[in-house]
Prior knowledge:
Layout: H1 2-54, H2 71-79, H3 95-106, E1 113-117, E2 120-125, H4 128-135, H5 151-158, H6 165-176, H7 179-188, E3 194-195, H8 204-207, H9 216-231, H10 237-253, E4 260-262, H11 263-280, H12 289-299, E5 310-311, H13 316-321, H14 324-342, H15 346-369, H16 378-384, H17 386-408, H18 414-419, E6 430-431, E7 434-435, H19 436-465, H20 468-482, H21 495-498, H22 502-514, E8 520-525, E9 529-531, E10 552-554, E11 559-563, H23 564-568, H24 588-593, H25 595-598, H26 616-633, E12 634-637, H27 639-647, E13 666-668, E14 672-674, E15 679-684
Parallel strand pairs: 2-11
Antiparallel strand pairs: 1-2, 3-8, 4-5, 4-15, 6-7, 8-11, 9-10, 12-15, 13-14
The site of protoporphyrin IX containing FE has 24 residues, from helix 19 and helix 26.
Binding site for heme: 613
Organism: Cyclotella atomus
Region (Disordered): 295-340
Amino acid sequence: MTNSKLHIDTTCAQHPSAINMLQTSIASLIAILVCSSTYIWFKRRYLKHHLESIMPTVLWTPRFINYTSQDEDSFQRHLTEDGLQNKRQKMPSSSITNILPKMERLNGPYGMYATVYGLTKVVHVGHPVPAREILNGMGRSTTTVDHGQNVGVCKLFSCIGRPFRCMQSWTRTEKNRSSNERRRSSTLIDATGTTKNPAYDHFKNFSGDGVFTANSSDWKAKRASVLHCLLGNMNELENEVNKSADGLMHELKEIQSDEIVNVVTLLQRCTIGLIYRIITHDDALLFDRDTAKDDRCSSTVRSPSPRSSVTSLASMGKSETTSDSESSSNSHFDDGHRATKLNTNPIKALLPQYLDSVTQIRMIILAQSRSIWYLLPRWFYRLFSPMYREEEAVMGPIRAFARLACQNAKSGSPLDLLSKRTSHNRGASKIDGVTKDLLDEAITLLFAGQDTSAATLSWTLHLLSLDPERQQRVVDEVRPIIESDDNPEVDFVSKTMIAQMPYLDAVIKESMRLYPVAPFVVRKLTTDITIPREDISTEMTCPSQVKVVSDTTIPESTFACIWIYALHRNPKLWHLPEEFLPERWLDPELREKDAGQEEPGAYIPFAMGPRNCLGRPLAQVILRVLLARILNRYSVVDPRHEALALSRNKNSTDSEIDSKCLRKDMQAGFTVLPSNGLMLRFVERAE
Ligand code: HEM
C-alpha cells in the first residue's frame, strides 16, 4: 500500500517536469527542423551539387553539365540588378577548378593528396615532379631510397585524415614490406610502370581497341602503326588545313556582323571535315555553300543545337539556357531530315547525326564513369543498365560514320595504310569490308582530332574576344605575312609562315595553359613509383607548410590523376596564373618569373610520356593556320563584353580582360568546352 502510494506520488511529482521536457524537446526539434530546412532551402543548389558529386550516377539523373552552369545567369544578374558592379565574380565550384585549393589544404608532399574510393587508391597530382615521374612511368627505383624506411608513403596518405583509416592501414602494410620485395616489383613489372587500363574502360564501348584505349603490347603495335600512317607524310597537311579554312571563311561570309554565332559548333563542323579528309584523302566533306546557307536559315529560329551555330542577338539569353537534352532531341530529327533531303552523299547526310551523337556520347561516358555500373562486371552493365542501351543507340551514327570513312578511304591515305597493317587487320571477321580494329581506330582519330582542336580554338577565340588589344596585336603580326607579295595564293597560310608568327604561337600556348581541353589524365601504376624528396628550399614549395623531406613512394596499383588544369594554374609555378598573358612566353623578364616554363611536366596540354598526344604535330599546324586565317579576315567580338564596356562608358579596346566575362562554366566530356557553347560575333575587317 505504502509502496503503491509512493508510486503514485512519484508519478504525479514527475509528470510536470516530463511534460516540460517533452515540450522543450519538441520545440527544439521544430527549431532545428526550421533552421535546417531554411538552410537547405537557401543552399539547395549547392547541396544538390554536393550530393550529386558523392552519389553514384544511378541514384540521380545526370545533368551532364557537371561543372556548373550558373555563369550565364549570374552574368545576366550582374548586368541588370547589380548595376555592373566591379566586383570579382566568385569562381563557381567545380571538380576542376577546386582541385588546387583542395590539394593545398590537405598538405601532402608536392601538394599531392590521396583518397580511397571503395577499394581503389587514388592519388591526385598538381605538381610537375610527381606528374612527370608518373606519366613517364619511371619514378625513381625504390632501391635508391636512402632513408631506410619509406616515411614518404605514410606522409602522403596520412594527409587524407580520419575518414580514410583503411588507407592508413594500407600504407602501414606497405611500409612493412621488405625492400627486396619492392625492388623486385619495380624491375619485373611492365617497363613503362603505368597503364591506362582499367581507368579508361568506360571509353571501351566508344573507341573499342583504338590506340586511345588499347593496352600493353596491343597498344604499342597500334601506336607505332598510327604514327607511321598518320604522320608519315605531313606534306599535304597545310593544303588540307587551308581548304578547311576556305570553307570556314565562306561560312562566316554568309553571316551578318550582328548575328551571334555559336563558335563551338562552327569549329566542330570545320575540324571534323578536316580530320575526315586527313585520314581518308576524300573530299566529300569539303565545304558546301548550300549546306551552310540551309544551316543558317533554320538555326536562327531555334535554339542552338550541337550542330546549329547561329542565333540572333535577341534570342541569345534564352537559347543559352535551353537544356542540352531538349535542344538535342529536337535537332536530331530536324538535322537528319534536312541533311538527308539535301545531301545525296551518304557521309554528308550522316554528318549532322554524327556530330549530335558525339555530343551525347561524351556526356554518357562521363555519367558512366561516375556511376555504380562502372564498378560492376561489364556483362552485368550490358545486360541490365539502361545507360548501356542509350549508349548503343547513340553509337549507331558514330559507327556508321566511321565505317563510311574506312570505306571511302583513298589509296595511300592513313586509313587505307592502316587497313593493310597487321595491327589493324587481325582476324577474318569484317563487317562491310571493315575490321573491328580499323573501325575502332577511325572512331578514335575522328574524335580525338576533331573535338580537341575545335575546343582549343573556341577557348582561344573566347580569350581574344575579351581582349581586343591583344587580338589586334595578333592581326598586326599575321596580316603582313599572309598578304605579302611572296605569298602565291590569296590568304594561304603555310607552315613556313606560322614559324614567323611568334605572338600567334604565344597566344595559343597561353590559351592551352588556361584552358587545357583535357583537364586531367589518369594512369594506373603497374609498379611502385618513388618520387624524389621535395626540396623545401625551392620557391615552388609553400613555406608555411610542413613538407616531407624524404622520398615518397606511391605503391603499385594506385590510380594517379594528373590534374593538367591545376598544374597550369599553380601559383607556385606561374606568375599571375589566372591572367591571360601571352607575353610570358616571349618576354625574357616575364619568362623568368614563371618557374613552370623551365620545369618539365609543368606545362603539358598534350600530356607527356609514352601515352602523350599522338596527334600533336598535326594539332600544332591546325590550330595556328586556322587561327591566323580567322583573325586575318574577322574581328571576334563577345557581345557580353561589348555590352559591359558600353554600359560603363569604357573603351571596348581595353586590354584588361573583364573577369565577369571570363567563362568558368565548363562542360566536361572527353574534352572541356564552355557549357552550352560560346556565342560570338564575327565582324569582317577592312581590307
Ligand atoms: C589541341 C589539340 C589536342 C590536344 C590538346 C590533345 C590532347 C591530348 C591529351 C592530353 C592526350 C592524353 C590523353 C590521356 O592520356 O588520357 C591525347 C591523346 C591522344 N591524342 Fe590528342 N590532343 C589534340 C589533338 C589531337 C589530334 C589532332 C589527334 C589525331 C588526329 C590526336 C590523337 C590522339 C590520340 C590517338 C591519343 C591517344 C594516344 C595514346 O594513348 O597512345 N590528338 N591528346
